[in-house]
Amino acid sequence: MANLETKNNQAEQGLRTFVDNLVAAKNFEVEPDVMEQIKADVYDRAEDIINATIMANIPPEKLEEFDKLLDGGNQQAIEEFTNRQIPNLQELTAEALTNFRNTYLGIK
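Predicted structure:
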């Protein structure tokens, strides 16, 4: 379980670093509390994009099973399921976040 917790912490930290870099690239000149709110909002949007990517790529016949796993809240079971059902999840997530980054920064 500690290994999964470490992996989840690394993923969360990676996403926070992605968001910090993304927001820094916008060069906002705002108060620190406003900056923290901007980062929180961008983090939530990035999480939503990851979740939408997962949902869009789970086979339709497996959605009910996935929904039950989500309700159960067992993070390890959820991760194992998504890795089995979406073998290229990391690539899909990276592509989705790259598209988000480009849109956020106005890159075509």
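Summary: The radius of gyration is 16 Å.
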